Amino acid sequence: MRNRQRVAVTVAALAISASVAAVAPAGAADSGGVTDSAFLKTVHQGNLAEIESGNDAQTNAVSACVKDTGRMLVRDHGKLDGDVKTLAGRLGVSLPAGPSAEQKQQLASVRAKAGSEEYDAAWLSAQEGNHRKTLSLIDEQISSGRNAQITAAAKAARPVVAMHLDRVSGGTCHAGPSSHAVPAGDGGTAAEDAASGAHDAVTVGATAAGGALLAGALAWVVRRRRAGQEGR
Fold first, then answer.
1. For helices 34-60 and 117-144, what crossing angle results, to 10°?
2. Where residue 227 falls among pLDDT bands split at 50, 70, 90?
3. Separation CA 34–CA 61 (nearest Å)
4. Separation of CA 70 from chain center
5. Contact in structure between 82 and 157 (CB atoms under 8 Å)
6. How far apart are CA 129 and CA 131, in angstroms?
7. DSSP calls for 21-36
8. 53-85 residue pLDDT tens
9. Which residues are CB-contacts of 204 (< 8 A; sequence separation ≥ 6)?
10. Which of 55, 69, 103, 59 has its CA nearest to residue 180?
11. Rounded to an integer, what distance in angstroms lies between the CA atom of residue 212 and that of residue 12?
12. For residues 56 and 122, is the Cβ–Cβ distance under 8 A?
């Protein structure tokens, strides 16, 4: 009799533990995953490099199309990087202070051709390669990322990067609607709200499940006690 009561109490305790585990905050700890944190660091460096390259093109390019594309990169990557920095700060991810050594070397190589058509060709070729790499990185985060906020930011950035790639595709500057502006982001707030809503739904379900198990276990104890008293 006592053993059965102990079993029932154990079941109830497990139900409560499951409920508590389910309501634990989903977290920023996930952002420390290799894929997630590396993504933020890499795209931050990429944004900084694109901003520098865009500024350089406005000064040293020959064609109006390349100069205009440079302005577009400065504007768009500046806004995208604002979201990256906000999200990194929220999740405790430390970001690099500047572009990588390879990115700096690439810009220096292009800048050496300043004021010539060779500059424009080298700049466009570099931007095509850079944006293809960035799209590949974004797609990897979308498919393998663990943190919902970071993955949502990657999804939001993808069409902007794809539009830039179209602009420099084939190493040729394709004039486009430069007036198209990227809306200032929310630093992942929308993604956080979505993740929070999903978490709340899980919490409610888990709490209800835990309560049901607990109620069932207690009812079983009561029935056993009544049966024992009637048997006397």
1. 160
2. low
3. 38
4. 25
5. no
6. 6
7. HHHSPP-GGGGGSHHH
8. 999 999 999 999 999 999 999 999 999 999 999
9. none
10. 69
11. 9
12. no
The number of CA neighbours under 13 Å toward the Cβ of 22 is 19
Query: Which amino acid is located at 119 in the chain?
Result: Y
Strand, helix or coil for residue 25: coil
In the numeric block, the tokens 């048997």 are attached to 231
Phi, then psi, of 63 in degrees rounded to 5: -85, 150
| Angle of CA points 84, 87, 89, to nearest 5° | 105
| Residue 83 C-alpha from the chain's centroid | 10
C-alpha span between 130 and 134 (Å, rounded): 6
Phi and psi of 206, rounded to 5°? -65, -40
Length of the chain, please? 232
Tokens encoding 192:
């956080």
Task: Report the distance separating Cα 8 and Cα 104, nearest Å.
Answer: 66
